[in-house]
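Researcher: We're teaching a course module on how sequence relates to structure. For the next exercise, students receive a sequence and then see the predicted structure as tokens, so they can try to spot secondary structure elements on their own. Here is the exercise chain.
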Amino acid sequence: MTLGGCVTSGYRAAEEIFSVELESRNIEIGEVELQMETLLGLGRLKKERLTVLYYPNEDAVCIQYRKDFINFHQFWSSEGREDFINALEIYNEDYNARDLNRNDRKSKQKYGKTRGYLIWQQATFLVRARAGMDVELGYTFKERAPYFTIHQLEAEYIDEMARDNDRTSQATVFYFTRAQAAELAALFDHEFLKEFAPDSNTSPVDRSNIPRDEY
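Model: And here is the predicted structure for the students to work with:
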């Protein structure tokens, strides 16, 4: 998908099926800092630092996170990573031009939609659900500050052998300052991934001081 300065429609027309095996060989390539909503969406944003893995066999980058007692693995294909980098570039242009609209209810999808893959499981002895899912790229204002956003839409897992195992994941939003989004873009970079270089910076982070971009 080529992203322009206006809202894009849909994701790549020539979409290929993208999936990942969780047990495939993977490499921890770093961590990304971002904000998420607290349990049940109540209260202020909470700073998180999430592990990022690279799956070379599938050329997929995985962001691991836990929300409402469920473990999630959000996978990005090379096309999805390119979409993220392009969307962030346009967001920075809009930010610098002061062209962000606080009242735009569709701002979370302004920079288009891409396709990802999700694996989620509440406990090791319960069903491991997996499905393709759509991701919207955009921005929103939260607590009077603008954030670049990844809006992971619901994913639906259908088990044709046991319908009691069907699962629907919840929608999730990641909130990034520009500096935080740039860190993820660096981990998404094709040249970086070719080197398979791990990032060992795992020092504790103060989660009470939520960063903001002035606007």
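Model: If you want an answer key for the exercise: The radius of gyration is 17 Å. The chain has three helices and ten strands.
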